[in-house]
């Protein structure tokens, strides 16, 4: 199995406020060590207006990380396309791909937090159409070396050539977060790689991987298990009491996420909101436990078809090292 990180950096940490930026420096140091420990990749989220200083400029942090690493794949999980000018985003990501010598994994999504759409003044009802138009523009920007114009519903560009070119050819791999059968089929049809959410159980993960594989092969694409990344929250516990305390902390963090995600009418949506109304559902499939327990859980995931796991680690460098020392060797 292959392991990477799924990071949600914050500007502050336990000792220093956001004005210091120490949390971002901690994030960089953590990922530099992750590379030396054999982790394959690091994906960074994008969030806005949460009130707890979550990373809002992931491409900036990933560019800094590119300058301090040589092998680590650098991913976005995800850039929310409805909020971005697609030409500017194509330019910024191409620059990162060049700076990193072709290590960009371009994860994209439609967004799910009500407060973010409200803050940007973009109706959530427009998310799907904006997402589709942005993909069209970015793909053309990365693959065309001649000038073009685009006259769409949301963006207008006249006689442009998008520079610089990407390092990877024909372009960096697209990764898309998907859960429903229809969204998985669309990802497979486009040849996009797949990110599966951290809350679904092993049976659901296996069904989604099987659907993705069959759809790819039906359309003439090859299938590589490394084209599917399964997100999981991780805590390597000393004992049962340590595990239960960590699960309680994670549940509190998840409640905070739900609070900024749900719309005023209370309607549930995708991602965490799909699990939020069932007690314990957001913690049921975490990789929280002793090394032996985590190995057993990973074995079940692996038997379901998962070979690439992105870990959101609670506990910083100590946890990073414990997983690398006590769990990773069993799957190398």
UniProtKB/TrEMBL annotation:
In short, the EC number is: 1.-.-.-
A Gene Ontology cellular-component term? cytosol
Q: What UniProt keywords are attached to this protein's entry?
A: Monooxygenase, Oxidoreductase
Q: Where is the Luciferase-like domain?
A: 1-306
The answer on whether this UniProt entry bears the keyword Magnesium reads: no
Specify the superkingdom: Bacteria
Q: Broadest EC class?
A: oxidoreductase
Molecular function (GO) terms for this protein are:
monooxygenase activity; oxidoreductase activity, acting on paired donors, with incorporation or reduction of molecular oxygen
Asked if the record carries the keyword Oxidoreductase, the reply is yes
- PANTHER family xref list: BLR5498 PROTEIN (PTHR30137:SF8), LUCIFERASE-LIKE MONOOXYGENASE (PTHR30137)
Record's protein name: LLM class flavin-dependent oxidoreductase
Organism (species): Singulisphaera sp. Ch08
């Amino acid at each position: 199995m292959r392991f990477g990180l799924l990071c949600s950096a914050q500007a502050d940490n336990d000792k220093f406020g956001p004005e210091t930026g120490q949390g971002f420096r901690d994030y960089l140091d953590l990922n530099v060590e992750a590379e030396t420990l054999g982790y394959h990749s690091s994906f960074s989220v994008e969030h806005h207006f949460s009130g707890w200083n979550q990373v809002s400029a992931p491409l900036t942090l990933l560019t800094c990380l590119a300058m301090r690493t040589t092998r680590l794949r650098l991913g976005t999980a995800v850039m929310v396309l409805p909020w971005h000018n697609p030409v500017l985003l194509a330019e910024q990501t191409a620059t990162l791909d060049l700076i990193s010598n072709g290590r960009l994994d371009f994860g994209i999504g439609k967004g799910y937090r009500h407060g973010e759409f409200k803050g940007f003044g973009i109706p959530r009802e427009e998310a799907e159409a904006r997402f589709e138009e942005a993909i069209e523009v970015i793909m053309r920007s990365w693959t065309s070396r001649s000038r073009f114009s685009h006259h769409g519903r949301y963006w207008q560009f006249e006689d442009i050539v998008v520079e610089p070119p990407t390092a990877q050819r024909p372009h960096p791999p697209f990764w898309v977060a998907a859960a429903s059968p229809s969204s998985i089929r669309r990802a497979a049809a486009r040849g996009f790689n797949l990110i599966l959410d951290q809350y679904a159980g092993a049976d659901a993960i296996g069904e989604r991987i099987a659907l993705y594989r069959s759809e790819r092969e039906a359309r003439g694409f090859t299938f590589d298990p490394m084209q599917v990344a399964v997100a999981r929250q991780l805590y390597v516990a000393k004992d049962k009491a340590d595990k239960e305390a960590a699960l309680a902390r994670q549940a509190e963090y998840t409640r905070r996420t739900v609070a900024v995600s749900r719309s005023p009418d209370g309607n549930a949506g995708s991602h965490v909101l799909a699990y939020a109304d069932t007690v314990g559902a957001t913690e049921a499939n975490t990789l929280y436990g002793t090394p032996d327990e985590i190995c057993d859980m990973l074995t079940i995931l692996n038997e379901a078809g998962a070979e690439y796991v992105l870990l959101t680690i609670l506990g910083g460098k100590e946890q990073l090292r414990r997983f690398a020392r006590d769990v990773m060797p069993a799957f190398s």
